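Protocol step 4 of 6: record predicted structures for both targets in the notebook before any analysis. Target 1:
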Amino acid sequence: MFISNAYAAGAAGGGDSTTALIMNLAPIVLVFLVMYFLLIRPQQQARKRHLEMITALKKNDIIVTSGGLIGKVRSIADDEVRVELSPNVEVRVVRGTIAEVRSKTDPAPANDSKPD
């Protein structure tokens, strides 16, 4: 009396429960895969590029901080950078707040000796 006809027919039919389980979990797995490839993976790649950028930072690079300040790198410590904003104005900036490197300095030539 209280059992619906659809439930009673499904129970009597003896359907394969493994197939039903897979069909119920397939949309959840599909949503997770879409979220991973559209959101999580690109964010991980962007973070990796940012870490590589701030690791490769050198003296005399022109940088932009996340606050919008533009300056030239004067010295680099473990987790902070001294940035010259204008002549005789230097500030300390946390390395992680550097948003962009505008112009990089050229690496020193491998052979610095002068020709005789």
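Target 2:
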Amino acid sequence: MKVIVFKENVFNALYSIFAILSCVALGRVCAFYAPLLPSSLYGLIIFTFALHLRIFNAEKIKSSVIWCIKNMAVCFVPAGVGIMNHFELVKQFGITIVAITFVTTFLLLTLVGLHYQRYAEREE
């Protein structure tokens, strides 16, 4: 029984890797021909549409996505190292960076909230 579960987990992991890498590759192709957005963003858009259109099975990908979210902190280590390498810039522009972060977050949340209210009113 454990062998069957192990094989299923390995298959789901390989299926997830194939789904993600194929979307990343298509994103790079899109970015090459239409360089309006970064290739990773194109890849995310393609991955979202593929899941929405059920080209890829979301249930098979779910366990890999949960694992990636649990280990996402590893992705922020290079950013932290980069901040420490350019600490003089952070000291010089730190207040500006924080202000821009708060203002843009506030604007984004406000616009999303207003949009949702308009959408909810239409649904009623």
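Step 5 preliminary note on target 2. Residues 1-70 form one domain. Residues 27 and 45 are 8 Å apart (CA to CA).
Proceed to step 6 after PI sign-off.
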